[in-house]
Amino acid sequence: MLHYSARQRNDGRWDYTCSGRPVGYCCPYSPIPEDGSIPSAEKWNEKIAPLRDKFHTLGHATEDEAQDCYKQYLLDTSLTLKTTEPENANQQNRCRVCKKFTACLAMVGAYSMFVLCPEHQTREVVAGLLVVGESWES
Which phi and psi angles does 103 have, rounded to 5°? Predict the structure, then answer.
């Protein structure tokens, strides 16, 4: 079981961590070795290479800053906006912002999903809805 949370370091600074180890931008930039053992390594490395300057080991002054740092990492690396209404949408739900019916979704990773109409499919709207705090994953 994985435990995600902001944790205070011995020097008083904060990192966002997974089971006690810094994750996201709170750790050094480290591409995945492209030795064939991980099929998507090349694609991932291409995605994170332009973000290399955001990775750091300095920590944050507060728990909130560490959580926001991880939120920015998630938005930068795993935000998917599905702005086109599917042709055969059997199920429609109300947009979280304007309450119009839509079949469009915004997803952050595999676990955070928001029903948002095409008008509200923006990084800024998703950032306002996405909560990063303590979580568990198995």
Answer: -110, 10
